[in-house]
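Onboarding guide, step 5: your first structure request.
Type a short instruction followed by the sequence, for example:

Predict the 3D structure of this protein.
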Amino acid sequence: MNKGWPSLLWNLYNNDSDQAGSYFGAQEANRSLHAIYALDNGTVTLDNLSNTTQSGLSLEAKVYNLAGTVLDDQSAGGISLASQQVRTSVLTPKVPSSPAGTYFVELQLKRSGTLADRNVYWLSTQPDVVNWSKTLGQPQGAVSQYANLTSLQTLPQSPVTATASTVSQAGPGGADRATTVTITNPSSATAAFLLRADIRRGTASGQELPGDSELQSSIWQDNDITLFPGESQTLTVTWNSADLQGSTPVVSVSGWNVPTIDIPA
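The system replies with structure tokens like these:
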């Protein structure tokens, strides 16, 4: 769970104690109320892992192309789940098989109108054929098919905006500050893919300091998010003010197709 060196294994923390993407993936998978896209049959499953009945639930599933256009939008409401209940095949998002390519599926699960769980998947309907004789020493002509996600490299740049505010608090592990960051994708046509926010040491003008300026005491409640056109999401991070070493707190936001921006925190 906490390897001393970075690797290709599913470690939850990097060697500098930063939360890796797998941390947030594990966190999402273990939410007590959770919507899951089943990759084997293309349906949506709802899980209630809590010890109480959850009622007033509604689910929305959207399918987007790489241009950020909604191709399919389905909803289901009036859902109630008993404790430890799993309900399968609640919705079946229509992911196009033609043209073959990469698509996004967004799931939003709400309880009494308030967002309880949000999950984004990126899927390929175009296989990537690999010759095993060149990779695994298998007999000539043996092939394996993997999802071809190379079209993600064609995503145009997407601008994002962000605001941040910090309050003092009495937190665990010496964390005495909490910063709330709201990130918005103002684009009308492009997804902002895999956005990452970090709290850093910076200048009074709101620019991060050079070098490794990230606050190692920072713990995010969510991160590595994807926003579709017009969407916003609010993230919270706690941290220890002693880590500033006399500098100013700054939040940096960057993504797969989003250039880095810095905002004062």
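Each response can be followed by summary notes, for example: The chain has a mean pLDDT of 88.
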